[in-house]
Amino acid sequence: MSEGAGPPVFVFAPFVSSTMRVEPGWIDYNGHMNMAYYLVLFDRAIDEALAVAGLGPDYLDSRGCSYFTAEIHTLYRRELSLDDEVRVTMQLIDHDEKRIHAYLEIRQHHEGWVAASCEKLFLHVGMTDRRVCPFPPDILANLGAIKTAHGRLPRPEALGRNVSLRAPRPRDRSPAETSSTHH
Fold it and tell me: What is the Cα–Cα distance from 49 to 16, expressed in whole angstroms?
């Protein structure tokens, strides 16, 4: 297991993926990209983004660990069609010694509109026993650098959404805010 502090990571805020294109096999009978392939785009982008932190393709071979998606929430906003070019942005919202919380958006490459957003929680996993385990210190330091850079970004509006048929409840008010002061 080779560990070591390398040079500090260079971080863009947010991270922006390489350009990807909607593939012919991803188009469904409705004539647009099937919902499953939005997740493929998010997955490809997160692999690029987390490689910056040292969690790239060689991480499994060199450290015997990887990361798994534990939870995901996707909001589909606009259709993508055959040959649309997209880029995915990733904002690291938070992390601790074993988990990463990230927010991603698929953006149409030329016009910049958001096709979908995704909030994900990842777990760091030792592949020998397939159990959640702490990140090595150098990876934690890299995640910390990314979090610092991304912490300057505004909080995404879609972060923390729930699936529900009901309208969101207004925030509860304290008795002081609701009581009448008229005499």
Answer: 8
Burial profile 127-141: b = 16 or more Cβ within 10 angstroms, e = fewer: eeeeeebebbebbbb
CA distance to 11, 94, 140, 151, per residue, from 39 (Å): 24, 21, 26, 24
**Residues 6 or more apart from 143 whose CB is under 8 A from it?**
53, 92, 95, 100, 135
Q: Which residues are 143's β-sheet partners?
A: none
pTM metric for this prediction: 0.84
Q: Is the bond preceding residue 175 a cis peptide, omega within 30 degrees?
A: no
Question: pLDDT digits over 49-79, tens only?
Answer: 999 999 998 999 999 999 999 999 999 999 9
Helix (H) or strand (E) holding 122: strand 114-126
Return the number of other C-beta atoms located less than 10 Å from residue 180's C-beta: 5
